[in-house]
Amino acid sequence: MSDDERDDVPGSDDTDEVLAEVGPRLRRIRKERGATLAALSEATGISVSTLSRLESGLRKPSLELLLPIARAHQVPLDELVGAPRVGDPRVRAEPIARFGRTYWPLTRQPGGLQAFKVLEPQRASEPHPRTHEGYEWLYVMSGKLRLVLGEHDVVLGPGEAAEFDTRVPHWFGSTGEGPAEFLSLFGPQGERMHVRARPSRRP
User: Under a CB-based contact definition with an 8 Å cutoff, are residues 51 and 37 in contact?
Assistant: First the structure.
């Protein structure tokens, strides 16, 4: 196709602009999940050099390359491409960085049941159990999440869930073995400020 013919194609400039943004978006999503190019290569079967060229914009993205990357990151394909959601009235929640984690609110109304998608990065974490009014439910989507609840110290893997009364001293965080993505739902009073649970001192 000649340059003149290409200029006559509706939206061709827009397409080029969208494709040019795919590389930086792939790099950002990978780094948000704490994944290396080598780890992503192992998960997708795509060579490290190809992944590197994709992220730098030297390799044109294709469906054959983007689909396994989307599966590895567990994100919709349109999140990698940045395509606008036509006809979808839902508003995409902006991520919130707090306590070293990234939260995506899944509920919009204040009060009542609150739901979040949470990304826990790989890090060294020292448990500090806390208590508050309410009830919490956790569901791990990827990675491993450590949960300390009362006298219990367990590791939850993908597909595993836990629910508990938040008046019981609890803490959850990184196992130090990689990032974890999970869903968090908590009850009507779960939004109250956490109070550190300290063992009572005996005389």
Answer: yes
Rounded to whole angstroms, the Cα distance separating 39 from 52 reads 12
Q: How far is CA 92 from the centre of its chain?
A: 14
Q: What region, left, alpha or beta, does residue 74 occupy, with left being phi > 0 and alpha being psi -120 to 50 degrees?
A: left
* Other Cβ atoms closer than 10 A to 30: 19
Dihedrals phi, psi of 169, to nearest 5 degrees: -55, 125
> Which helix (DSSP H) or strand (DSSP E) does residue 126 occupy?
none
Q: What is the CA radius of gyration of the chain?
A: 21
Distance CA 165, CA 187 (A): 10
pLDDT in tens, 147-177: 999 999 999 999 999 998 888 999 999 999 9
